[in-house]
Specification:
184 residues; mainly alpha; 7 helices
Length: 184
Amino acid sequence: MTVIPLRSEPESGWAAFLSNGFRPMFLACALQALGAMLLWLMQLGGVSLPPPEGWSGIEWHGHEMLFGFVGAAIGGFLLAAVAKWTGRRPVSGWPLLLLLLAWIAGRVASSGGLSLPSAALVVANTGYWVWLLLLVGREILAAGNRRNLVVVLALAAMTALNLLFQLGWVSRLHLLESQVLLIA
């Protein structure tokens, strides 16, 4: 078993919060679950923002559950697990904060209330996946952990599915089904 040396006491509450990926990403996951339920109930009541242009309500809901909610859970899990797999310190600090902000940008952009140009929507929603892929890939490659390269391939596939969803070049419902299968 590999022991990862950590500081005994984080410098501040923020340092503790950003000391491992599961903390901010699992909190984001929980908050998004509550927010998405509220938005969905508002939509059922006829009082909500429309989904982004070109998306149906079902496509928005599926995207936010599979690429938003589950995406945060995947990120939190992988960032904690990759440290254990590689024996390296967990991704923390600014890189982790940027990942969280990229995830939040995607959720805000997908809310539909901003009427963003499609290019901004693509960048906001795909940025999280690209950054997560780079962070996890960097850790696995730096440790020479070839056994877990399949995780990098799975993240690359999820990133590609999300990008294709944003671009609308393939049936969005088929892409959601593909994401479910990939997650399973």
